């Protein structure tokens, strides 16, 4: 149930994370779109401003050229009517400035075919007008004022001026038309820009609201889940306490049962062993009697009687003794495990390295006889646990490593330790014959052994080690391959905490 709740919480967290990331992506895209729209609108504004300025420049150039032509015509007429040279000088100033104004106007309108056509007509009419003006001014300068007046009255300057004014009006109208189109395009761009900003703003508001709702709902669900988990944990702790108490009581019952059964088994076993001893003692008088019978009356001794007394009976007694001795060792082992399970754990601060060195000192003669070297990789983290149990665990593992050596290879045993997440892992590694991977678990079962049975033992040691490790709140496992040695790892809590519960 706890696993299901945890998985549901993880799934919910993953879904919320994905949704929030999607919302953030939408918001980011909205901001990017708004930025692109702002850049686009800014570019359009710059283009519009540039073209508006261009229109104003064209209109100004048109007005300037038109002014020069009008002022030149007024100065010519003033000179014609009055003969005052100031009018002539003014006319010459206007006439001199006119080509530059026309060139400027041509440069500004060369990208517009309509303006180019109007300017072509305008240049032709202005050229004819300037010729007429030059003739009139020349006649006046020569003193032929009457001829100049006659020429003025007969020339087509009025029509030319009308065409020139019309051409200027067309050019001005064209620029106003272009300005209106550009204003309309600018307004459309502004509307598009504001529309994009509005859509982006709406998206951002929706994303913000959706994210807020999602976070609020997730927070509410998370709070509810935490409340449910807290309640479940409280109930789980109560259940674990109850189950632990039940398990402790069951374990105690099993230990008492094992003790009683083992104790009761010893009574008939002692009787069997006693009668077996009497049988063994009785074989000697029978053998003497058989010898006397063979010597004094050999005809009464049959072959079956001879075999029964001298071979069958001693052999049967030997088999019975071997079996009863093995049964006695097994019963003693069970009693030992039972007593160990009832022993009170007394935790204290222990240096595992010092424990190993003490064990090494006690079995140094065994290490020397078997040619085994034992090393301790210091430092090893300290533990607070039961010293007797830890000594029995390490002693059993080290002695096993000295027994199951690989022939032809000097034995080495290395003891090391490390701390991980509040637990201490002690490792006992050897270079012995190794253990078949299929037997990695069965070697910890009672009366089970692995590999070649060439060493004394009843399959009790590793079962005893596992039972002790469990009692200390730890576990034991093995990593081994045939021919490459074994590494036993004891995983113990840094500080032992009693698991017993009173019912």
Describe this structure in words.
With 503 residues, the protein is α+β, with helices and mostly antiparallel strands. The chain has three domains: 2-219, Aspartate receptor, ligand-binding domain (Four Helix Bundle (Hemerythrin (Met), subunit A)); 252-342; 347-493, Heat Shock Protein 90, CATH 3.30.565. It contains ten helices and seven strands. The protein has a five-stranded mixed β-sheet. A two-stranded antiparallel sheet has the order 1-3. Strand 4 (411-420) and strand 5 (423-430) form a beta hairpin. The radius of gyration is 59 Å and the shape is rod-shaped. The two termini are 26 Å apart. The model has no long low-confidence stretch (mean pLDDT 78).
Q: Could you give a quick summary of the protein structure above?
A:
With 503 residues, the chain is an alpha+beta fold. It folds into three domains: 2-219, Up-down Bundle (Four Helix Bundle (Hemerythrin (Met), subunit A)); 252-342; 347-493, Histidine kinase-like ATPase, C-terminal domain (Heat Shock Protein 90, 2-Layer Sandwich).
**Level-1 CATH class name of the largest domain:** Mainly Alpha
Topology order in helix (H) and strand (E) letters: HHHHHHEHHEEHEEHEE
Q: How many helices?
A: 10
Q: Strand share of the residues?
A: 5-15%
Largest sheet data: 5 strands, mixed
Which consecutive residue ranges, at least 5 long each, have pLDDT under 50?
A: none
The CATH topology of the largest domain turns out to be: Four Helix Bundle (Hemerythrin (Met), subunit A)
Report, as a whole number of angstroms, the end-to-end distance.
Answer: 26 Å
Q: Choose one word for the global shape.
A: rod-shaped
Strand order of the largest sheet: 2-4-5-7-6
Structure class? alpha+beta
Name the average pLDDT: 78
Structural Rg: 59 Å
What is the CATH architecture term of the largest domain?
A: Up-down Bundle
Number of domains: 3
The total of beta strands comes to: 7
* Helix residue percentage: over 70%
CATH superfamily of the largest domain: Aspartate receptor, ligand-binding domain
